[in-house]
Design goal:
Length: 489
């Protein structure tokens, strides 16, 4: 019995001993974990030179790779641990100046100069900081007043020299490049910004605009869409996206209606598309040309000339616009203007046979335009019958015979001579056909250069005219004293 009790007591003692040992082990384990977890914090807050040096070294490495946020975090930790650590203030002032956080940078420089008085390098950098700060403010003021060239000079030559990581200056530079229509440079600058921050909304917006003004609309659309995925309610991105979408829709509708022959609808669509963004010259030049072509088809020469001129004001080398404006000038009977435009087009594209043929037709039209219009002189249409031509001739000859126009004899002679010439051409079937074909008959008939065809003689062919039944008023056989004979049909 006593042996059993002793064994039981021993067992209990062993269990108790094991529990104590286990408890001690757990306490040591917890203590060790606490040391491991707290060590970084203790090291960071420790003001021993070795720990500060480690923070400064890490900050320097981050600065080299332009990880400025991480560098500032290390520098702030070092300063918090040791407020007299001058080198940390120096680095922090430099980083903040790079980022154009000028007020914070100035405080750090001044703190450094308290610790290291009369440090010439620090004093120089502080002076440069104040110059950069002033230049940035001036650049924004100049941008607001529309002096984009001067504003860009301040950004390029001052601000980004002393503060190369200044996001405000970089963004302003992109806006200035867009205003200067240097779209390729704007794309390049926004590329650098997006390389550092691929989700920068302003960079996505402005890069999209640059592609838009270069008429690379698909790429522009992708930039706007990416920005809207990041911020669906961004007003500027929404405006750019829907503006482009509407422009493409209107432009396509104008072209489709022109192709389908719905010319008046096409005109309205072209005008609506042009009104959406007057600054989009690279796209609008094609809209102006498209509108010109439709107006030519509608016979609206004056309006077509205006549209083609708008296209040529944007791109003076646009051959098709010259050709179309020439066609429009034909409609307004500006023969010389037509030839001038088509000559320019032919000079720019000497191998284009269509342009050469159009020029030949225009030159022929110009030549024809300088001929006398015998139909107009007799007051008959180009489809008039020979009977109508004779009737018109008889009426006008009676009206303008010099013997009946004593008070204005010289004018009457000129008119009478012109009427007789018209009848000489149109009253002869063969000559009329040749005239309608575009042949020049004036020299052949003795009408060129010598004062015109003379039905009164005077050294030329003598004509006598007799009307059947005589002239009204009883002058049988001609006007008395006139010496012109009578009219004969």
């Amino acid at each position: 019995m006593s042996k059993s009790v002793t064994s039981f007591a021993s067992a209990i003692g062993w269990v108790a001993c094991r529990g104590i040992i286990f408890t001690i082990f757990i306490l040591h384990f917890v203590f060790a974990c606490q040391l491991l977890l707290l060590q970084p914090l203790v090291s960071a807050l420790d003001d021993k030179p070795g720990n500060a040096a480690e923070l400064l070294q890490r900050a320097s490495q981050n600065i080299k790779v332009k990880h400025y946020a991480e560098a500032l975090e290390d520098l702030n930790t070092a300063i918090k641990a040791n407020s007299t650590l001058s080198e940390a203030y120096w680095h922090r002032a430099s980083v903040l100046r790079n980022l154009c956080r000028y007020e914070e940078s100035e405080k750090s420089y001044k703190k450094y100069l308290e610790l290291k008085p009369r440090d010439s390098t620090a004093e120089k950098e502080l002076s440069q900081l104040l110059q950069a700060q002033s230049a940035l403010n001036t650049a924004f003021n100049l941008f607001d007043t529309g002096d984009f060239t001067k504003s860009l000079e301040y950004i390029d030559k001052v601000v980004l020299v002393f503060s190369p990581a200044c996001s405000k200056a970089k963004t302003l530079k992109v806006k200035l490049l867009l205003e200067a229509k240097d779209y390729s440079a704007a794309i390049s600058e926004t590329g650098f910004i997006l390389k550092e921050d691929e989700n920068n909304l302003e960079a996505l917006l402005y890069r999209g605009r640059a592609y838009y003004y270069l008429t690379d609309h698909d790429v522009a659309m992708r930039h706007f869409q990416k920005g809207l995925r990041l911020d669906p309610e961004n007003r500027e991105l929404k405006k750019a996206y829907f503006g482009l979408k509407n422009l493409l829709k209107k432009s396509k509708s104008a072209e489709d209606n022109a192709e389908k022959g719905k010319l008046r609808l096409s005109v309205e669509d072209f005008k609506a598309a042009l009104a959406l963004d007057p600054k989009h010259l690279a796209h609008n030049v094609h809209l102006h040309l498209g509108l010109c072509k439709v107006l030519v088809r509608l016979g609206r020469g004056k309006d077509a000339i205006s549209s083609c001129t708008e296209a040529l004001d944007i791109d003076g080398e646009l051959i098709e616009a010259l050709v179309q404006r020439g066609e429009a000038k034909l409609l307004t009977e500006d023969w010389e203007g037509t030839v001038q435009d088509l000559k320019s087009a032919a000079e720019k594209s000497p191998q284009d046979m269509n342009v050469q043929e159009a020029l030949m037709r225009a030159e022929k039209a110009l030549k024809l335009s300088k001929r006398k219009d015998w139909y107009k002189i007799l007051g008959v249409s180009k489809t008039a019958s020979i009977t109508e031509i004779k009737r018109a001739y008889k009426k006008l000859a009676l009206q303008w015979h010099p013997d009946k126009n004593v008070d204005n004899r010289e004018e009457a002679e000129a008119k009478f001579r012109e009427i007789a010439s018209a009848y000489q051409v149109l009253g002869d079937e063969e000559k009329r056909v040749r005239y309608d074909r575009g042949e020049d008959l004036e020299e052949e008939m003795g009408m060129g250069g010598g004062g015109g065809f003379n039905p009164f003689g005077g050294g030329g062919q003598q004509f006598t005219f007799h009307f059947e039944g005589g002239f009204p008023g009883g002058f049988e056989g001609g006007f008395p004293g006139g010496g012109f004979g009578g009219f004969h049909f």
